[in-house]
């Protein structure tokens, strides 16, 4: 395939950015999207030009490092797929592809397609720890966990923290990410002692980082490569309301 890439180029956080067009000929449909960018970067390097900066690591849809908006959609046109798992057979010969970084106040651009996702680390850090009693290992069946709770906890724990939810949300909210990190512990026995302080701390860190508020539009779930459901945000809201009510004192108590 012969493609034209329009890529956001920005030298640094304080520099103006622009879309730059690059022709990329002879693209194999079996290439992954990142392999196609590797081919472009190899050519740019041989021509003495600055290669396109983009995040990547495992290239197996596990680490959450890769992140870019492809033709207006976070991670591209395929559902439940990260950019590194996206293959060029999903594009047409002669197509023009726009590639941009995540766009959010809390994700400032570092260079080209690379953004600073430190705000996610701050939310995680605000979650604190879980209480782990010292001593011998407990009996395996001492604490029963309902199958529905275990399944929902695993579903939320699958979040890889890529940031697609933030890029897709018109409010720039990270509530789906925060909900996933909060609720997978709130559904398990290990997470109960710090359940209230955890949800309040993480939501406060979310707001302090500059993420927008959630208005339940649902774009976050549409682009999430791991299929984190919108019900996770509902669980987060219930836990947050209960925690703040208990902290501040409910009327009549």
Automatic annotation (TrEMBL):
This is Succinate dehydrogenase iron-sulfur subunit. SUPFAM superfamilies: 2Fe-2S ferredoxin-like, alpha-helical ferredoxin. The keyword 4Fe-4S applies. Residues 150-180 form the 4Fe-4S ferredoxin-type domain. Belongs to the succinate dehydrogenase/fumarate reductase iron-sulfur protein family. InterPro entries: 2Fe-2S_ferredoxin-like_sf, 2Fe-2S_ferredoxin-type, 2Fe2S_fd_BS, 4Fe4S_Fe-S-bd, 4Fe4S_Fe_S_CS, Beta-grasp_dom_sf, Helical_ferredxn, SDH/FRD_Iron-Sulfur. It is an enzyme of class 1 (oxidoreductase). Its EC number is 1.3.5.1. PROSITE patterns: 2FE2S_FER_1, 2FE2S_FER_2, 4FE4S_FER_1, 4FE4S_FER_2. Its cofactor is [2Fe-2S] cluster; [4Fe-4S] cluster; [3Fe-4S] cluster. Residues 1-103 form the 2Fe-2S ferredoxin-type domain. Binds 1 [2Fe-2S] cluster. It catalyses: a quinone + succinate = fumarate + a quinol. The keyword 4Fe-4S applies. Keywords: 2Fe-2S, 3Fe-4S, 4Fe-4S, Iron, Iron-sulfur, Metal-binding, Oxidoreductase, Tricarboxylic acid cycle. It comes from Plantactinospora solaniradicis.
